[in-house]
Structures are given as structure tokens and as C-alpha cells.
Design brief:
This protein has one domain. The protein is elongated. The longest helix has 9 residues. It starts with a helix and ends with a strand. The relative contact order is 0.26. The strands form 3 sheets. A 3-stranded antiparallel β-sheet has the order 4-1-7. A two-stranded antiparallel sheet has the order 2-3. A two-stranded antiparallel ribbon has the order 5-6. By secondary structure, the chain is α+β, with helices and mostly antiparallel strands. A hairpin with a 2-residue loop joins β2 and β3. The protein has 2 helices and 7 strands; from the N terminus they run αββββαβββ.
Length: 80
């Protein structure tokens, strides 16, 4: 039944940015279903995957200044 909900969910085309430091595909899990997304390739994914990517953030400290943290996407992507 969960598979039917995921299949019926609106799909979104995205491209996850390529990264020189991390060339591995991005793995996203939604309700026990895993999606392995290649970087730099346009893919169609359920909107729930996009929501997870939007909430996957990390904190960086520019120039080592611990008083000014910035929150950036862990896996930068664009909707196409």
C-alpha cells in the first residue's frame, strides 16, 4: 500500500550538484524505500525525496570564525 502512495506522489525533476570531494551517489530513504541518486544527472523523484533534501543541512564556519555559523544544504540541488 505504501508503494502505491509513493508511486502516486507528484514527481519532481532535480539535479544534485557534483562535488569534487564526494563523488558518491546520494542516498535518500523515505518510509523504508531507498533512492540512490547520481550527482550531475537529471532524475525524477517523488516530492517527499525533495523535501528530505531540503531539510538536509549542515553547519559551516566561514574562515574558521566560530561566532558566525552558516547553514547550507548538505546536498545542493536544483529543480529543473
Amino acid at each position: 500500500m505504501a508503494d502505491k502512495k509513493i508511486m502516486a506522489e507528484k514527481r519532481v525533476n532535480i539535479i544534485i550538484a557534483e562535488d569534487d570531494k564526494d563523488t558518491q551517489p546520494v542516498q535518500v530513504g523515505v518510509n523504508g524505500r531507498m533512492y540512490i541518486i547520481r550527482r550531475g544527472v537529471k532524475v525524477s523523484v517523488p516530492s517527499s525525496v525533495v523535501e528530505i533534501l531540503e531539510h538536509a543541512i549542515r553547519t559551516v564556519y566561514p574562515s574558521g570564525d566560530l561566532s558566525k555559523p552558516r547553514h547550507v544544504l548538505q546536498y545542493p540541488f536544483q529543480k529543473v
